[in-house]
Amino acid sequence: MKNKYIDLIEQTFEFPNHEFDVEEGELSWFGIPIMDIIKQYGTPLRITYLPKISENIQRARRMFNVAMAKVDYEGDYHYCYCTKSSHFSFVMEEVLKNGSHLETSSAFDLNIMESLFEQGLLKPETYVLCNGFKRPMYVENIQNFIKNGFTNVIPILDNIFELDLLLEDFSEMLNVGIRIASEEEPKFNFYTSRLGIRYNDIIPYYEEKIANNKQVNLKMLHFFINTGVKDTLYYWNELSKAVNLYCELKAVCPTLDSLNIGGGFPIQTHLDFEYDYEYMAEEIVSQIKQICNQNGIPEPHIFTEFGSYTVGESGAMLYSIVNQKKQNDRELWNMIDSSFMTTLPDTWAINQRYVFLAVNNWESEYERVNLGGLTCDSEDFYNAEVHSNAVFLPKMELGREQYIGFFHMGAYQESLSGFGGIQHCLIPSPKLVIIDKDEDGEYFTKLFAKEQSYKSMLKILGY
Predict the structure, then answer these.
(1) Is 73-306 assigned to CATH 3.20.20.10?
(2) Rounded CA gap, 262 and 302, in Å?
(3) CA 39 from chain center: how many Å?
(4) Residue 195 pLDDT level (bands cut at 50, 70, 90)
């Protein structure tokens, strides 16, 4: 009878795969024995595996370039990293090492860019697309970057008032983009995105404010929808509307040459995840070319802004089970040595699920459990809809350690939880370890941050 944990996983999913494997009852991730990392650093532990960032950047660039070659597409493809997904220096360095361009959201983003430039990591010709609502400091930082020779800094106008702010006390040439206020998915709370300028206002706005202004060039039209790049009628309809608007705008605006289709390539959040990336890239490129040809308009350069896709699959969070509680005849609670609310806030806020696996004891029998965090909040738990709301783990045995891992959680979690700040119930931020490969392809680890101390918490709180 196959009742071991390894039997359950192998029967339920395509396992092992190129990323996960098991050796002598213990999990390996990209060939890295996770138990070795735990023995060295302990838990709770946050990990970033840098080579995965490079792999995904290169993969997307290859897919779009192949798609363009297949249909003889005239424009270029530019990969941008959406910095709000993770601002850590080691992430930014890995992204820039691959020649990626950048997309920013606020004023401090540009202070990060300044630091990267001073270190010789950011080149002046790098595209920096400045999205978001522009407050005075953000405007000033954009202006300073352009004055300092960053000719490919393109502020994306989020409303009809931002251009006046950007031109105030500014004499340099200004290349800008316009963000479309796209229609939201029908089931969303609102009909139209709060971000961007309405479809019907864009061409009149260009003719009134930009067409006769010799200081400003409109270079880019920006399109993005919250649901991401999916093979749905809604996505293709919104893309078609955006490309047709590009064609209308290009007919009256000779300087317009780029279409930014935003972000939204999904990442693997469960082991049976399926997504045809190559098909989607080819279909996007093909549809843009087809609509432009029908309108007699040259194909635009295509920009993408991939955030979660860039960094999400590089992250892992490791915990140990500190105790098991039996609360009634049916429910077992395995308590972790941290908090889901503070280390994986998306699991609490938007019911996000991640690839979840036991790290050790794979040859043991399994049992159905719930996972609980250390805070006193009733919402501090994790379950998985794929297993009827519970999860399965190796059976707990007295005196035997059990470790678990959550994978592909490298986007947004540190910034949403306030890395190094004040957490719910004063649960400390965990250690953060970087994993990279040397020239010989051997992995090595580096401690980026220790577990948060009580002294740092008290200092933040004013004690």
Answers:
(1) yes
(2) 10
(3) 29
(4) confident
Torsion sign (Cα): 127, 133, 138, 140: positive
**Sequence-distant (≥ 6) Cβ neighbours of residue 129 within 8 angstroms:** 80, 101, 102, 103, 104, 154, 156, 177, 220, 222, 260, 303, 305
What is d(CA 218, CA 209) in angstroms, rounded to the nearest whole number?
A: 11
pLDDT of residue 386: 45
Strands (E), 150-229: 153-157, 174-179, 216-222
Is a pLDDT exceeding 60 seen at residue 388? no
Q: What burial class does residue 129 get, using C-beta atoms within 10 Å of its C-beta: 0-12 exposed, 13-18 middle, 19+ buried?
A: buried
Q: Strands 77-82 and 301-306: what pairing? A: parallel
- The CA distance from 30 to 14, in Å, is 16
5-50+312-460 and 73-306 share one CATH topology?
no
Burial code (b: 16+ CB inside 10 Å, e: under 16) for 202-211 equals bbebbeebbe
How many angstroms separate the CA atoms of 70 and 65, rounded?
9
Beta-carbon neighbour count of residue 124 at 10 Å? Answer: 13
CA 305 – CA 83 distance, rounded (Å): 9
Q: Which two tokens stand for residue 344?
A: 């994986």
- Paired residues of 78 in beta bridges: 303
End-to-end CA, the chain? 59
Burial class (CB in 10 A: 0-12, 13-18, 19+), 377: middle
Which residue is it, tokens 């749905």? 232
Burial bucket for residue 21 (CB in 10 Å: 0-12, 13-18, 19+) = middle
% of the chain exceeding 70 in pLDDT: 97
Of 428, 411, 298, 302, residue with least CA distance to 350: 411
Whether 192 shows a pLDDT value over 70: the answer reads: no
Q: How many residues belong to the chain? A: 463
**Nearest one of 187, 184, 139 to 159, comparing CA atoms:** 139
- Domain positions in the chain are 5-50+312-460, 73-306
Output the DSSP codes for 86-112. Answer: ---HHHHHHHHHTT-EEEE-SHHHHHH
pLDDT by residue (tens digit) across 294-312? 999 999 999 999 999 999 9
In this predicted structure, the answer to whether residue 191 has a pLDDT above a threshold of 70 is no
Contact (CB, 8 A) for 283 and 70:
no
Beta strands in 116-194 (DSSP E): 128-130, 153-157, 174-179
Judge if the upstream peptide bond of residue 16 is cis by omega within 30 degrees of 0.
yes
Q: How much is the pTM?
A: 0.94
Question: Class assignment of domain 5-50+312-460?
Answer: mainly beta
